[in-house]
Write a structure and sequence with these properties.
mainly alpha, elongated, Rna Polymerase Sigma Factor, Chain: A, 3 helices, 101 residues, single chain
């Protein structure tokens, strides 16, 4: 009898979580490593049918790498927006802050 999706995911998680967490923590530190691992397993659950059955670690590591790169890109973009906002001159009077319609 084939395992249910929940059982398959639980087995995958139990067998691979320590390795995925260690992979992520080596790259981004403890706190962010946990966040990346959580994203990896959320994605693995959504795409459970695509996860290789024989050895899922390379697939999971690739997902972790993509999550890390996406996170880094988001942080760079947020930083760039913060710099642009900080460099904007604020109007001298609050009356100028409102827009006329």
């Amino acid at each position: 009898m084939p395992a249910s999706p929940e059982e398959s995911f639980r087995s995958l998680y139990a067998a691979t979580y320590p390795d995925v967490l260690a992979f992520a923590r080596r790259r981004v530190g403890d706190h962010d490593g946990h966040d990346i691992a959580a994203e990896v397993y959320a994605g693995a659950w959504r795409r459970l049918g695509e996860v290789p059955v024989d050895d899922a670690r390379p697939w999971l590591f690739a997902v972790a790498r993509k999550v890390r790169l996406n996170t880094a890109g988001s942080q760079r973009r947020r930083g760039a927006v913060a710099v642009r906002i900080a460099s904007q001159r604020m109007p001298a009077s609050p009356a100028r802050w409102t827009t006329s319609r």
